[in-house]
Amino acid sequence: MEEKQQQKKKKNKYSIIVPTYNERLNIALIVYLIFKHLREVDFEIIVVDDGSPDGTQDIVKQLQQVYGEDRILLRARPRKLGLGTAYSHGLKHASGNFVVIMDADLSHHPKYLPSFIRKQMETGASIVTGTRYVTGGGVHGWNLMRKLTSRGANVLAQTLLWPGVSDLTGSFRRSVLEDVINSCVSKGYVFQMEMIVRASRKGYHIEEVPITFVDRVYGSSKLGGSEIVEYLKGLAYLLVAT
Amino acid sequence: MKHIIKILSLLVAITAFWIGLLETSVVPRSNAWLLPIYLIVSLGCYGLLMVGVGLMRFPTCPQEAGLLQKDIAEAKEFLKQQGVDVGCD
C-alpha cells in the first residue's frame, strides 16, 4: 500500500499556475515557499505575468537561475489581460497531469498544497478547493464589515446556486479539466466562482480542504460598492447561464 | 437545465400549491391569503440567521499572521543569499 502510494506520487506531475501583476517581491516569496513545502513531489511553476512594470519578470528570471528553468516557467503576456485568460494561457504551457492555480499575493499559503494533494489521492476527486469556513480554516485581518459581506455573499450564493461546496471564491484548486476553464466567460474574481459552479453542474467530484486566509496588512482587503455590484451581476449571470 | 429554470419551477410549484389551498379551503381563506407573506418573511429570517450564525462562527486565525511573517523573513534571507534581488518592496 505504502509502496503503491509512493509510485503514484512519482507518476503525478503538478503544474502550479501563478498569474502576476506587479508582484515582484511576492513571486519570490511564493516560489521559495512552494519549493520548501513540496519536496517529494514533481512539479513546475508557471508564472503568467501580464507585463508588470515593476520588474516582476526580472525577478522570475533570477529565480530560474536558482531553481532551474525547467521548474519555473515564465510565460509572460504583453499587457494586463485578466485573471481568467491568465489561467487558460498558463494551462496551454502546463505539462503536468494536475493543475494548481493560486494567487501570488500569499493570501493562499503554499503550506496547504500537501493537504490538497493528499485529499486528492484519498478521494480521487477531480477538483480540490480550499475553504475558509470550516474548522482548521479561517481568516485574519478582516473587520466586521468585510466578514459580513463575505458571509452575506456566501449565503446568497448557497441559496440561489446550490453549488455543493461551502466556499466559492478565493481558493486554490486543482483539476484535470481544461473543460471547465474553457466554458467560463466571466472576468476577475467572479471567474473563480463560475469555475466551481460549472464544475459542480458538470458533475465533477469536488473536495474541500481547510485553508487560512491572512491579510498581510490588517484590513487591506476591502470590498467596495463596485465589487459588490460585480458580484451580484456575476451571481445573476450564473443563475441564467448554468 | 438552466438553474434559473429550476428555481422558477420550484416557485411555480409553490404557487400552484397555494392556489390549491385557496380553492379547496382546507384552511380558512383569510389565513391562506397570508401564506406567501409568511413564506417571504421566513426566507428573510433564514437568510439573516445564516449570516448571523456564520458571522458568529467565522473562524479566525491570528496565529497564522505571525507564522506568515516568519516565513517571509526566512524566504527573504534565503533568496538574498542566492542573489535574488528582494531588497526593495
Describe the structure.
Chain B: Pathway: Protein modification; protein glycosylation. Chain B: One of its GO terms (cellular component) is dolichol-phosphate-mannose synthase complex. Chain B: This is Dolichol-phosphate mannosyltransferase subunit 3. Chain B: It is found in: Endoplasmic reticulum membrane. Chain B: Stabilizer subunit of the dolichol-phosphate mannose (DPM) synthase complex; tethers catalytic subunit to the ER. In chain A, strands 3-2-1-4-7-5-8 form a 7-stranded mixed beta sheet. A two-stranded parallel ribbon of chain A has the order 6-9. Chain A is 45% helix and 17% strand. The termini of chain A are far apart. Chain A is an alpha/beta fold and 242 residues long. The longest helix of chain A has 18 residues, at 144-161. Chain A is globular. In chain A, helix 2 (24-37) runs parallel beside helix 3 (56-67). Chain A has a domain at 1-106: Alpha-Beta Complex (Spore Coat Polysaccharide Biosynthesis Protein SpsA, Chain A), CATH 3.90.550. Chain B is mainly alpha-helical and 89 residues long. Chain B has one domain (3-81). Chain B has helices at residues 3-24, 29-56, 62-81. Chain B is elongated and about 85 Å long. The chains are: A alpha/beta (242), B mainly alpha (89). The interface between A and B is large, with 49 and 31 residues.
